[in-house]
Design brief:
single chain; alpha/beta; Rossmann fold; seven-stranded mixed sheet; 10 helices; 7 strands; 17% strand
């Protein structure tokens, strides 16, 4: 029989181990351990999604990113969520990532789609030709298929480092707060370039050590991408985490549930929040284009 507490501890232990690796600036995994690392991360997120399903408000847990609150930093979002939306700050992060990318009539793939947050944000304000959400977790995909049934929107289990998509078959690749989980990040970046059509958009954001972002940017540009936006939004994310403690966490009245979600959502006092405050980790947002002579 599965032990919920053990599953919870395994997820958090894996998250803290990953956090330590990121802070040290060593997010890469050696080739001989990459597959084992991926299998372990899959197990952890399968357990996490099962745990969410057991929580009272788990069926409403679509948006799991850290969120975004506007301050003096420039904003490129063309959509503003309603203040009454329960996950308004997490929706803002998605819209900020999309920025001025024209999703209408385009083929969009959301890599590491989780529980369908981007699909909700996109459906409400954009009209893509198609949307495909891909995630390594079968539990997450089952959740999306059970709660997000819409025309031209599909969800498939898949590996970010080996996308089962044809060359130049998509216009937009979205990747939010997930790439730190990939043991071979270079393979993912190459896959993004391969599946994008000329002129395509790679909309990318994550939480990493500053040095890791420098390496990622250099690699993406070496692959052939052109960087058109690079924004440090750590301060915006911290503001959102502050509000998370007052707003989102309020729905979890059970002490065990509150502790579990506080750690996962980087609420104030958590290790992740502290690492962002100290500058050990930063949250950056990018737009890259696959610009060719014909695009």
């Amino acid at each position: 029989m599965n032990n919920p507490d053990r599953a919870q501890n395994n997820v958090l232990r894996g998250k803290w181990k990953l956090l330590e690796r990121l802070v040290e600036g060593n997010e890469d995994t050696l080739p001989d351990t990459a597959e084992a690392d991926k299998i372990q991360r899959k197990r952890e997120y399968e357990a996490f999604n099962r745990k969410l399903g057991e929580l009272k408000f788990g069926k409403y847990a679509f948006f799991l990113n850290y969120g975004y609150v506007q301050n003096d930093n420039p904003s490129f979002a063309k959509v503003t969520p309603r203040e009454s939306d329960f996950d308004a700050n997490s929706r803002r992060l998605v819209y900020e990532v999309i920025g001025d990318c024209p999703l209408d009539d385009l083929d969009v793939v959301d890599v590491s789609c989780g529980r369908g947050a981007v699909s909700i944000a996109v459906q409400g304000h954009f009209r893509p030709k198609s949307y495909l959400g891909i995630d390594l977790s079968s539990e997450a995909i089952a959740f999306c298929r059970g709660h997000r049934q819409m025309p031209n929107f599909q969800f498939e289990e898949g590996d970010a480092e080996s996308l089962q998509l044809a060359n130049e078959s998509r216009d937009v690749v979205i990747n939010i707060e997930s790439s730190h989980n990939y043991p071979r990040i270079g393979k993912f970046f190459h896959e993004c370039f391969r599946v994008l059509r000329p002129g395509g958009w790679f909309l990318y954001t994550d939480l990493l050590a500053p040095s890791a972002f420098d390496r990622h940017t250099q690699l993406l540009q070496a692959i052939g991408f052109t960087k058109t936006r690079d924004a440090d939004i750590t301060s915006n994310v911290l503001l959102a985490c502050d509000e998370t403690a007052e707003r989102r966490m309020a729905v979890y009245t059970d002490s065990a549930e509150r502790s579990y979600m506080a750690d996962f959502l980087a609420a104030p006092g958590s290790e992740t929040y502290h690492a962002m405050e100290q500058g050990l980790l930063c949250y950056r947002l990018f737009t890259f284009r696959k610009i060719t002579h014909n695009s």
